[in-house]
Amino acid sequence: MKKISFSIEELLKKIPTPFYVYDQNGIMGSVKKLQKAFSWVDFKEFFAVKALPNPYILKLLKDNGCGTDCSSLAELYLSDMVGLENEDILFTSNNTPLEEYQKAYELGAIINFDDIGHIPEFIEKIGIPKIASIRYTPEKAYGSGIIGNPLESKFGMPFEKLIEGYQMFKDAGIKRYGIHAMIISNTLDIDIITKNTETIFKAVRKISKKLSIEFEFIDIGGGFGIPYRPEEKELDIYLLGKNIKELYEYYFVDFKPKIFTENGRYITGPHGYLITKVLHIKESYKTYVGVDANMANLMRPGLYGPKNAYHHITVLGKEGKYKKYDIVGSLCENNDKFAVDRELPKIEKGDILIIHDVGAHGHSMGFNYNGKLRSAEFIYDGIGFKMIRRQETLKDYFSTIEGGDIYV
Ligand SMILES: Cc1ncc(COP(=O)(O)O)c(C=O)c1O
Q1: Were 224 and a residue from 31, 111, 244, 266 both cysteine, which residue would form a disulfide, CB within 3.0 to 4.6 Å?
Q2: CATH 2.40.37.10 residue ranges in the chain?
Q3: Does ligand 1 have an atom closer than 6 angstroms to the CB of 359?
């Protein structure tokens, strides 16, 4: 288990639980590793904003050579807010409202079209995209995990549809092409990532030959995994880079597309912690440790199940294995559990629990069921802690309520 590089006790002296805290140097370290692994090619990481949609983080990543990958209007605005524009922004949406396409177009973003059905309306009502890119979902994928069977996927297009789509773009006079695919999620197995990348490379070759077009970029998506469990090993990113380099050299001799990734989890996942306090211990058929965070602060275990979305938990200042506990929040939902049957040291009321690896798809998935409020976010920059989002208040929560006197 990676060592935490700052003192949580320091933060606890001033800040009420629950809160998120991120490690800036850790995030930078992951970015640098990824960039180094792909330094053999014209490469760019477009951070998946949905993983950690905080302007401080996006600015940090921008200053270190990353763009953003957005999937919604708010994420486009966030990218705009930190000064990103044009081809430093990808827009990978699905079931997309026209106004979101409009904003992406105004920013000059590269749009990865999820469905070729969007193309005619886009061209008619918005304009001609400067680069044509379509999301590819191959019929057969390797190890697709949480993201699911491609044949059940609502994302992207099968190969034949890609041909139709690129033909539409070609007929519209477009000269620049890219392709996108996001087939895996949280994959630690480099063979799986390599095989899926080969599937994309093969598709590019075929489309290129069939339509006589060259591809400027290949976006192999995000989904690089992180070791959530202490027994799991880190992804060997350098070996992955080397494997993909070999494939690239085999498939691309005449034209040389750039390689893009849009990782979220790999960049920020391991460098975020949710800090929460034990409020109550309940002995029932099992022992339940009730903490002051709940599923509204971290939805992954509730959404995917505590086994699929394992988050390691430690008790501040305590070690060892005393007994099995269920660690639960206070929502009126029985899946509001951060861990089930987890062996932990002896837990008492007032103990501080650290929920690990919540730096991606953690705070951002938060919601307000039961009127629960979203927690604050802090970052440790190597010198001190900075608040990068304040805690929500009841005033925020009630701010959208109207008196019922507005007729539509
Ligand atoms: C289109 C797209 N790109 C990138 C990502 C980032 O995935 P990860 O954080 O697992 O790398 C996601 C995740 O949902 C996604 O939907």
Answers
A1: 266
A2: 270-398
A3: no
| pLDDT, position 404 | 86
Angle of helix 190-211 versus helix 159-171 axis, rounded to 10? 40
Which residue's CA is minimally distant from atom 1 of ligand 1?
92
Catalytic residue among 160, 254, 319, 332: 332
pLDDT of residue 146: 52
- Mean pLDDT of all residues in 258-263: 98
Superfamily of domain 270-398: Lyase, Ornithine Decarboxylase; Chain A, domain 1 (2.40.37.10)
| Rounded distance between C-alpha atoms, residue 248 and residue 42, angstroms | 12
Name which of 75-84, 182-191, 257-266, 364-373 the model is least confident about.
182-191
Q: Is the CB of 360 under 6 A from ligand 1?
A: yes
Topology (CATH) of 24-268: TIM Barrel (3.20.20)
Q: Is the pLDDT of residue 199 over 90?
A: yes
Instruction: Fill in the amino acid letter for 21.
Output: V
Taking CA atoms only, the protein residue closest to ligand 1 atom 16 is 182
Question: Rounded to the nearest whole angstrom, what is the distance from the C-alpha of residue 262 to the centroid of ligand 1?
Answer: 7
Contacts of 126 (CB under 8 A, 6+ apart): 98, 101, 102, 105
Residues forming CATH 3.20.20.10 domain(s) in the chain: 24-268
For residue 19, what is the DSSP state?
A: E
